[in-house]
Amino acid sequence: MMINQMLNIKYPIFQGAMANIATPEFAAAVSESGALGIIGTGAMNAKQVQESIQKIRSLTDKPFGINVMLMNPETDAIMEVIAQNHVPVVTTGAGNPGKYMEMLKASGTKVFPVVASVALAIRMERAGADGIIAEGTEAGGHVNEQTTMALLPQVVDAVNIPVIAAGGIADGRGFNAALSLGACGVQLGTCLLASEECPIHENYKNAVLKAKDTDTVVTGRTLNTPVRILKNSMSRQYLKLEKAGAEPEEMEKLTLGGLRRAVFEGDIKTGSVMMGQVAGLCKEIRPLSEIFEDMMNDSKKQLEELKKKIEECQC
User: For the chain, what is the mean pLDDT?
Assistant: First the structure.
């Protein structure tokens, strides 16, 4: 079963919970356009999550999701708010949501942890997850080592619940590749930065449009906190400090407030401009509805061309 049938949405597409970007307003716009909008709660407290749920429900009657970073000290209270409000979907990161499964399931909420390894995917299935989001290192923001193309089929083979592909997907070709590897849907992030509705500074959007395939870099690997961002003066300085073996505190000072500066002030030189490698495929600002519809139409067109290629292989 495709994920859109499972969740009663038009397209089998999740919106990534991008920090400082995945607001209730943006998530509502995504849901209204046929995909699953997701609010990124980040470091929110329970009251702010309650207000975010109320806000999105005032903007759309379509299904939506909430992303919870399990390292947040408010997680227990946040999960209670989510259950009390019967939120359709929860995605999780940075931890094991197992202790919340019974409460969430009783409220009708479906849980989709984001994973970067087969072992974690298996653990999440055993914990009671309804599905898995397998995210490759091509993605923007916090990443791990494995590529989507290598990780996805291994996760699909290892679990018996739906798997959603994330990382490096921006058009019908990427969508079809994910389905060919066993996914029942995809999660998009970077290509949605180039949408009319995305609440980021114009400088940030233009940086996505101008980015080439080699214009992102992963910082923080030596600290076990890898983050994929745009190559700029800040990231270059950060990598120099990493190579020199600088103290973590010194590197943290360099990035402090960097994402907020990029998102709200348009600081693309010293800000933390998170984007994935697939930014090189994003060439224009378009409405969300057009991005999703074009992906599905492109998928159908590409499938017809692929069928011809396969037939040509049979000599």
Answer: 92
DSSP string computed for the chain: --HHHHHT-SSSEEEP--TTT--HHHHHHHHHTTSBEEEE-TT--HHHHHHHHHHHHHH--S-EEEEEETTSTTHHHHHHHHHHTT-SEEEEESS-GGGGHHHHHHTT-EEEEEESSHHHHHHHHHHT-S-EEEE-TTSSEE--SS-HHHHHHHHHHH-SS-EEEESS--SHHHHHHHHHTT-S-EEE-HHHHTBTT--S-HHHHHHHHH--TT-EEEE-GGGT--EEEE-SHHHHHHHHHHHHT--HHHHHHHHTTHHHIIIII---SSS--B--GGGGG--S-B-HHHHHHHHHHHHHHHHHHHHHHHHHH--
CA 18 to chain centre: 6
Q: Which of 93, 218, 211, 96 minimizes the C-alpha distance to 145? A: 218
Q: What is the per-residue pLDDT for 94? A: 82
Contact (CB, 8 A) for 90 and 67: yes
Residue 213 burial by Cβ neighbours in a 10 Å radius (0-12, 13-18, 19+): exposed
Q: How many CA atoms lie within 13 A of 190 on its CB side?
A: 34
Tens digit of each residue's pLDDT (9 = 90 or more) over 189-241: 999 999 999 999 999 999 999 999 999 999 988 888 889 999 999 999 989 98
CA atoms within 13 A on the CB side of 15: 38
pTM across the whole model: 0.92
| Nearest Cα to Cα of residue 170 among 274, 276, 253 | 276
Look up residue 252 and give its two tokens: 């943290």
Residue 100, judged by CB atoms within 10 A of its CB (0-12, 13-18, 19+), counts as buried
Whether 265 shows a pLDDT value over 60: the answer reads yes
The type of residue at 17 is: A
